[in-house]
Structure to design on (422 residues):
């Protein structure tokens, strides 16, 4: 009697690709905009990039770069600045409304709202003159600010729940603010609600305070994520990894560091041509955002370049797999050798970059029956190039290797992998 086996249906493709990098680096760098300086950076939920860009020695504007392209659109042109104070806060709500902390060069500080529905007409949002700097909006449309408390003479992190101006929540107070220090400008909230901010650093030549990243844990409790790193800007990616622009005290040596899950020791991103961000005594790289595998950041003004908006594009992205979730069934032969059934004849490799793929592993990961279950692959130079396969019966794992097969040949090979029960 014929038997039908379906316990192998949850066979999972475990693909380990060893890639030959085109540049030997993780990211390539390109310029989106120049002729700054720039003082803030953010994005909306559609992946459009927004920045605050100086338009003269005393004025600045909110500008938009659709989908991170080089085309610049002025959204609002009514901001002011001077050589020492800038509009440092920029955040966008789920509705696309833009919130900006205005420069307090005239000793008047406020947060304004640019309403998308009215073509970004400006209105006052916070007017308590609290010397607002960094802004952030979380996934629930809560607005977070870095603002000065005149009573404690410290900066604090405040949350305005659901973008309401009444009954705000003070999350943390005690951020140093005094002559000889920069203002705290970096503020970010992760997808799970974790708040991080940048510490002020010395700008009087003493290097007494070297900045860093602090995480608010609960109440008035904080955790130092990094210290003495001259940190100027922060962002989280969709996986809650923290990215920080950090330096070593040199005006020409700012790098992007990644903190996995927002904790631990940061790892510097590897960028082609060893591209770094710059700063001067007063104009730092004040912004960074991620959009999928792309990173945008602001390059500071070293007194020559005027500042830039930069784009880092990921090189050698690992491939991903798409499937139609077909459910094959294996019917055992009544006599003779069994015929393998193809596991997934429509599986697709999604792969934007094309260095060489050299190895893949396919494994029966559920209900493996030793001595019975088997994966099969038949080499074919015409269809799959110089690919070979070896099956390990004790682990249920089939390993495919090739030194030169194309992505198309790898996809065809994966579509040919079969299951049989012996």
């Amino acid at each position: 009697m014929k038997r039908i086996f379906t316990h192998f249906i949850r066979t999972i493709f475990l693909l380990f690709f060893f890639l030959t990098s085109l540049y030997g680096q993780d990211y390539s760098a390109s310029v989106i905009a120049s002729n700054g300086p720039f003082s803030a950076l953010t994005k909306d939920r559609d992946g459009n990039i927004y920045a605050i860009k100086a338009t003269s020695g005393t004025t600045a504007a909110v500008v938009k770069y659709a989908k991170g392209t080089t085309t610049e659109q002025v959204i609002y042109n009514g901001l002011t600045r001077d050589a020492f104070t800038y509009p440092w806060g920029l955040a966008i709500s789920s509705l696309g409304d833009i919130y900006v902390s205005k420069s307090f060069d005239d000793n008047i500080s406020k947060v304004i709202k640019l309403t998308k529905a009215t073509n970004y007409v400006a209105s006052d949002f916070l007017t308590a003159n609290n010397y607002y700097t960094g802004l952030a909006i979380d996934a629930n449309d809560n607005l977070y600010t870095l603002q000065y408390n005149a009573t404690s003479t410290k900066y604090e992190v405040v949350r305005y729940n659901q973008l309401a101006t009444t009954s705000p929540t003070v999350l943390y107070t005690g951020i140093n603010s005094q002559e000889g220090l920069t203002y705290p400008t970096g503020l970010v909230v992760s997808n799970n609600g974790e708040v991080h901010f940048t510490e002020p650093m010395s700008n009087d030549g003493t290097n007494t305070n070297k900045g860093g990243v602090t995480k608010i844990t609960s109440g008035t409790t904080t955790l130092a994520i990094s210290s003495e790193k001259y940190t100027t800007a922060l962002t989280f990616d969709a996986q809650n990894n923290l990215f920080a622009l950090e330096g070593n005290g040199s005006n020409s040596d700012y790098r992007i560091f990644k903190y996995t899950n927002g904790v631990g020791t940061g790892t510097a991103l590897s960028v082609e041509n060893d591209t770094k961000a710059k700063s001067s005594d007063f104009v730092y790289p004040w912004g960074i955002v991620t959009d999928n595998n792309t990173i945008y950041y602001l390059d500071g003004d070293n007194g020559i370049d005027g500042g830039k908006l930069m784009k880092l594009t990921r090189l050698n992205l690992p491939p991903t797999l798409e499937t139609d979730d077909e459910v094959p069934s294996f019917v055992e032969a009544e006599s003779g050798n069994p015929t393998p059934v193809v596991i997934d004849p429509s599986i697709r490799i999604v792969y934007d970059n094309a260095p060489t793929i050299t190895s893949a592993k396919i494994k029966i990961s559920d209900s493996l029956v030793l001595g019975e279950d088997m994966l099969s692959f038949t080499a074919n130079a015409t269809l799959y190039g110089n690919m070979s396969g070896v099956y390990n019966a004790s682990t249920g794992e089939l390993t495919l290797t090739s030194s030169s097969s194309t992505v198309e040949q790898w996809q065809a090979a994966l579509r040919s992998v079969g299951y049989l029960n012996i």
Summary: Confidence is low (pLDDT under 50) at residues 1-24. The chain has two helices and 35 strands. The first strand starts at residue 4 and ends at 5.
